[in-house]
Amino acid sequence: MMNDPTVLEASRVLAEKLSLEQTSFADKITKAFRLIVCRRPSGKELKTLEDYYNEQLQEFSQKKLSAQKTLEAGEYTSNKNIDINHTAAIIKVINIIYNLEETITKS
Questions:
Q1: What is the span of the domain harbouring residue 70?
Q2: Count of domains forming the chain
Q3: Would the pTM count as exceeding 0.70?
Q4: Segment 7-39, tens digit of pLDDT
């Protein structure tokens, strides 16, 4: 599911919406986690996701990864009033949440 077009688009749309909220990154990820997994992340999970976000943000900021290409996933209209590096890093984090075993196997 990591490269499934539907999951990538869902990750992008949610990331764009969250990136426009005036909340902390931890709040954004907690909200995404609750929407996808239906529970709050543990402290360890939140820390791991924050660390991953920071790594991805650095990769996008240094142009080692293409934020623009990441934002092209899917057909849903993209919001042009966003910080592309920040949003691309959030997309990567949300994609990880969608691909947790707990998310895939929940009934």
A1: 5-105
A2: 1
A3: yes
A4: 888 999 999 999 989 999 999 999 999 999 999
